[in-house]
Amino acid sequence: MDDRAHTSTRLFGETPPGFRAADRDLRIDVCRGIALWWIFLDHVPNNIGSWLTPRNYGFCDAAEIFMFISGVTCALAYGRAREREGWSGMIGRSLRRGWDIYAAFLLLTLACAILAYLAGSDDLADESNTRVLLEHPGATLAHAAILQYRPVNTDVLPVFVIFHVLFAPLLWLLLRAPNATLGVSLLLYALVHLFGWRVPAWPNGVWFFNPLAWQLLIVLGAWCVIEGEKFRPWVMSRPALVFAVLYLIFGLVLAQSWSIEALVPQTLTDLLAPPDKSNLSPMRLLHFVALAIVALRFIPRNWEGLSTPVLSCAKCCGQNSLPIYCFGVLLALASQLTMLDLSEGLAMQIVVSVAGVLMMIVVARVLNAISIQRERKSAGTQSIGKVPPVR
């Protein structure tokens, strides 16, 4: 008997299992919230808090985690929207989200410039890449409007604008030929490294996050939602875990050799220089994959630790990723200014790190409370408008 319920091949046009899941995977918001904390800590220069992030213990950092999870959440959100509202509704949602990110990017650009101007610090203006905006506002804002100019630490937002706008055709391809689509993404990634392809930018000519390379993590995240269950046995296998652990140890040893003292021969350290982040070096990509394998192996979907107070705070930040990311960029600039004006000592580094993360949590809690209040008002308005049934 042909039992479709037990076949390992998803039929053409069939809804992927990830779209049918009723409950939300808490690991997504928790990981995204922790990544936001790490990004903030890494954005504060000369900060002891950055030693709490993956940056100093391997090749990749929080950027890879944030980008991959964005691909996962886009596939889940837009895939379910397509199921409920059709392609037209899904496209409308993706374009509106792209517009929200675009507007947030422009407002954040202005906010960074205003902060640098009010601070009156030439060092902050130079390090935040806002001096050109303060000296040539017209030309700079024109280039910002077409995503060619970006203050420091805002580079990821234009990348997300592009991917949200283009996610509808990407989802269409992934639903029809997921493995071929991932293959094309890998091919484009390889061509970027072979021929040095880049997207034009202004005034320095390059995007810090080259979208032609970083698209791979977005596509990989979406592919995992649609097709990943078929490869889960391999990902959870012992050989995959052994490879992941060995690669993470290799990355740890080499990272410590770059930053503290040589633990491997100098020839090897020089040969494997710190991998390129702008084009998502293969060493960084493999390091992220190794981290993901270990995390999936030891942090199950129903892990009780996800409900602890600390991870609940991370989940809250992850649920408000766009405003918290923007707020974190401004906090990093304010923290840098505070350290320049007052002290760059260890105590100040700890204060700005802890205070920054706590402020992100408070803002996220406030945003969640506002969202819940709006939902209650909306539900109350709809219930008032209904005609009670005749008994």
UniProtKB/TrEMBL annotation:
Keywords: Membrane, Transmembrane, Transmembrane helix
Residue ranges of the TM segments: 99-119, 156-175, 182-200, 206-228, 240-260, 280-299, 320-340, 346-367
Domain of life of the native organism: Bacteria
Name of the protein described by the UniProt record: Membrane protein
